[in-house]
Amino acid sequence: MLFFININGYSQLRNSPKKLKSKEEFIHSATKTDFPKNIDDFNLIEAYSFDKKDENIGVTYEKENTKINIYIYPDKIGNEGRLRNEFLSVYNIAFNKDVDFKNLKIINHKGEKYTCNGIRGISKNSNNENSLLTILECGTWMYKIRITSSELNNQNLIDLESKIINKIDPSRLTGLKLFNLKGAISFSSTAIKDSTMLVSTMAYSFKKCEWLIKNLEEKEKYSGFQDLYIDMHKEALKQFVLYEHKHKYKSSDETKKYLKNLNKIIDSPFLNEFLMEEYKMILIIPENVNLNFEEYHKWKTENNFNFELKHNLSEVRYEI
């Protein structure tokens, strides 16, 4: 494990998008990604750049009352929570409303050499058109699809998304420059306030890395720090609480209260429900797990349980 903070520079954004040449096809020079003249029955209309190195780009395909926008842009640090945070941020801008969690789905694209995880959301846009937003994490690149249509239904949008991904493979982006899987971890000042919090946070962070090493296929590890698995978070939290009584570390009253609440939810039947709400319902749960939010909310009321995780105690990330 490496302990350091790296300030990563990104290409300077343009004041307004620059149109790029795209007669028959468009090739993204930074990634050698080929955007063909046609995807299915959709025609390539334009390509444009958002930064001065032409790394952050978008292309548009159209047919009748349906528009496809595909974006590729660099992100050279694979922070924990990167995909979730990026998706939620873009969703709020794209739809100008709160996230409709029941229409979100975690998707998994298995390429020839690498696997990419993504998040898909379907909703209505401001023009009352059906709209799909999908973002995939591809190592040092992010891959975004936006489809808007006044004709296609939700399943049509999903089918079209699949055709796009099969035609322009996001997993190829992962292999362009591989992350160093010796995760870098930094700790916030909140975690260093007392010895118990620091040691517990260290154990918690290391457990996440250990879980991923043991449980993920090799080809999935390189697309980003894969924090979408609920079992990883469960095991890490159980590791967090082990050090409270194991050694006589210094503990503030705030830390004692935090650990008391954390133990309470871990010992309850509702750890899965708690984590799903903490992580905005964007987690991968095993098929045999059944969630019961009605009983969970009833339990919270009966136990006067009002607790949130400190998500800023540490940051785990992959870097090039």
TrEMBL record:
It comes from the Bacteria. This is Uncharacterized protein.
